[in-house]
Amino acid sequence: xxxxxxxxxxxIQRFSQKLDNTTMLTNNHWVVIDNNDNIKMVYIFxxxxxxxxxxNGLVSKAKWEYLGKEALLIDxxxxxxxxxxxxxxxxxxxxxxxxxxxxxxxxxxxxxxxxLNSIESIIEFLNSNYINxxxxxxxxxxxxxxxxxxxxxxxSSGYKIDRETNGWSFTxxxxxxxxxxxxxxxxxSIIYSSKNNHxxxxxxxxxxxxxxxxxxxxxxxxxxxxC
Length: 227
Hints:
Blueprint: E1 4-5, H1 8-12, H2 23-26, E2 30-32, E3 41-45, E4 50-55, E5 58-68, E6 71-76, E7 79-88, E8 92-97, E9 102-108, H3 119-131, H4 133-150, E10 160-169, E11 173-182, E12 186-193, E13 198-202, E14 207-210, H5 213-225
Antiparallel strand pairs: 1-9, 2-3, 2-9, 3-4, 4-5, 5-6, 6-7, 7-8, 8-9, 10-11, 11-12, 12-13, 13-14
């Protein structure tokens, strides 16, 4: 298994599940990240401590054991390896080589291929979802307060925020999409990006970005008036 230096892991461990939550391991199939497009290696942790290792569909059997104190033993034909807890959530498993500063990264197979299939995409995902989490919670908390006042309520300037949708992309990181309704059955979408803390909407030839939601909505209104 290929290992990587990743200084992000110690910074986000407080958000991690513990390794003693072994159901997180056994309820998912985990794809090893090695940046080799020609090989797909999948680890399947079974409840009976059997480990199935699929390499491009060819399966070999090994053993795994949780040893307590956030340590995991894997015993395979390649040898016995002791790993320490790095990071674990429903998408990513990072195991630290004992007495080493490098990590093995595995990705939930449901996410592999479509979103998380390289070390670069994993680091980007972790940065977006955890590093700035406190800032995001603060900003989104204010947004929630605003939406309680605005959602489905017509404002003095003649518009209302009909709904919000949460999502994530490589371009914007975590984002919130607002659907804005104006008089005359005109409507448009505004995107809040967690990467730059800005609100934006797109015209036919450019992207308009603002620090404040009110300013972005007013600009969108003027744009729609001239369409």
